[in-house]
Structures are given as structure tokens and as C-alpha cells.
Specification:
By secondary structure, this protein is mainly alpha-helical. The protein has one domain. Helix 2 packs antiparallel against helix 4. The longest helix is centred in the N-terminal third of the chain and has 24 residues. It starts with a helix and ends with a helix. The mean pLDDT is 80. Keywords: Membrane, Transmembrane, Transmembrane helix.
Amino acid sequence: MINKIRENGLTSQHMYIAGFASMGLSMASWLLSRAAGDVGMGRADHWGIFIGQWAPTFFTLGIALRIEESMDGKHDMMGKSKTDMDSRMARNARMSSPA
């Protein structure tokens, strides 16, 4: 799923922005729905909570995308650069080989 999101051009920054936007929309929808007092407080609470529940999903997707972005062939699971690892392996091979 994360690969499909990335293929569509979305980045972790987009997901973080969507998370913060969801928080803002949640507050705005709650305030606007509350101001339309003829429908009651229940409706305001329902809309605010409904939109507010999107934020954790967007932030989680942002974290998953950030991990994928950092592993784009540049890093291994421990966060070390592959070129650093390759040079260390070559150096260790030269040291251990008989001269």
C-alpha cells in the first residue's frame, strides 16, 4: 500500500500536512456546526470527532512513507549508508586476505 501511495507522487510531507489539516478541519467543523445551533450539540460533536479521527491515519502513513524514503537504496535497516558499508567490507576483506 505504501508503494502505491509513493507511486502516486505522495510524500511523507503530504501526509503530515493532511494530518494537521484534518486537525484544523475537525475544529472548524465542530465550531461551524455548533454555531448552527438549531441542530444541536450532538451533530457538532459527531462531525468534529469524525474528521478528527483521520489525523492519526495520516500521521501513521507519513511515518511509513518517511521510513520508505530513507531506505530508497541509500540505507540499510540500521540507518547506515550502503556506500559506507561497502567500503568497510572492502577494507575488512583486504585486511583479512593474505598478502
